Amino acid sequence: MAESNRSHLLVTGAAGFIGANFVRHRLALCPHERIVALDALTYAGNRANLAGLEDAGRMTFVQGDIRDGGLMERLLRDHGIGTIVHFAAESHVDRSISGPDAFIDTNIVGTHSLLKAARAVWLGATRHAHRFHHVSTDEVYGSLGAGDPAFAEENQYQPNSPYSASKAASDHLVRAYHHTFGLEVTTSNCSNNYGPYQFPEKLIPLMMVNILHGKPLPVYGDGMNVRDWLYVEDHCRGISLILDRGRIGEVYNIGGNNERPNIEIVNRLCAMIDERFARDPGLAKRFGGAPAAKGEKSASLITYVKDRPGHDRRYAIDARKAESELGYRPAETFETGFAKTIDWYLANEAWWRGVMDGSYRSWIETNYAHRTGSPAAASVA
Ligand code: NAD
Ligand code: TYD
User: Fold this and answer.
1) Is 163 assigned a catalytic role?
2) Are strands 226-228 and 259-261 parallel, antiparallel or unpaired?
3) Element (H or E) spanning 95, and its range?
């Protein structure tokens, strides 16, 4: 095998939302590093998210499945990989409710397959320099009450959805491979991300695309569920700090210190889109179905729908460990990150139209029809 090199990274789930942002961030941050960008290209993964990055010769894209242990071992050996950053997962809570199996397969079995490959290659007859960074979520800690302190790393795991339970299981496997076999691991548990390249099934891009098409904005329950929103680039910076300075075997929580109820997010999005239409008459020509194109308010589209089963009420991250040990601090405020995100989606219409193919449309129609009573109510164009 090529000698393993910590500067040779395998990034799994690299064509997904956070993975693609991370590859861009890391290539810019570390000009001496090389990346093998692996992705199975499920509905959530898109080659377009990595467009242009192969040209410089420092990133190689491989279409493959983390459950394919033979392929994982070959990639580690052939590319002298010394660092894995593991994003690949099924990531949408609503999908985990309508079809949990894929979450067990990818998030648990897939993570285990990657751990086995890492162990075989890095801890075989010769021990190789290595690091396995596992990307996880704050959802493993369960749900907070209004007055509860934010999630710290010592919090008990209490996952409530098939998604968070499968991520919790993968976190435990990573921990066990460190304690039992000595694999050099770190784990990050992060709050809700937003920003460029997020698939339009998650709250912010879904609402954005629906506003532009004049479709209802399906707010679950009373709209008062709280999430701690973080601009994706800040998550990527946090992961880089852990890779470069994090202690082996440790877990770091990453968050935005930015708790907002869902309805506030949706109202803010509506107001900001109205403001952009007012500023740029070209938008009314491009998106004639949007309320703002007809002098109406985007917020008129807000539609309260039946709640998500088992819907966690509140997430909040206590990121003091990452701050004090690693110097982590989000660079974006909610105002700057949100504005960048809205402007990115307005400027990249071809991207979101491209990723919203037929299979996505039929999924959303099937899965939202029972909640709204109308397939059109929560659908996208
Ligand atoms: P995403 O759904 O946008 O991307 C996941 C990627 O993994 C996709 O490109 C998909 O094709 C790929 N993938 C799925 N199954 C695979 C398999 N078997 N083999 C190889 N590739 C496969 O998700 P995301 O929002 O970018 O999340 C990435 C990671 O970050 C996940 O592990 C998620 O749990 C975690 N996370 C996400 C958030 C968030 O707010 N989005 C917050 C905290 C943690
Ligand atoms: P989501 O983006 O799916 O992330 P997560 O469930 O992992 O936090 O949802 C964020 C919040 O927005 C969550 O409380 C559910 C809510 N939500 C809606 O109200 N309507 C929607 O159409 C979606 C997708 C989410």
Assistant:
1) yes
2) antiparallel
3) helix 93-98
Ligand nearest to the CA of 191: 1
CA gap 102, 332 in Å, rounded: 34
For the chain, domain boundaries: 5-193+231-257, 203-225+260-309+333-372
Q: 18: helix, coil or strand?
A: helix
Task: Specify whether domain 5-193+231-257 bears CATH 1.10.287.1080.
Answer: no
Question: From the CA of 239, how far away is ligand 1's center (Å)?
Answer: 15
Identify the three-state secondary structure at position 185: strand
170 secondary structure, DSSP code: H
Topology at the third CATH level for domain 203-225+260-309+333-372: UDP-galactose 4-epimerase; domain 1 (3.90.25)
Predicted confidence (pLDDT) per residue in 313-362, tens digit: 999 999 999 999 999 999 999 999 999 999 999 999 999 999 986 554 45
What's the mean per-residue pLDDT of the chain?
Answer: 93
Does the beta carbon of 262 lie inside 6 Å of ligand 2?
A: yes
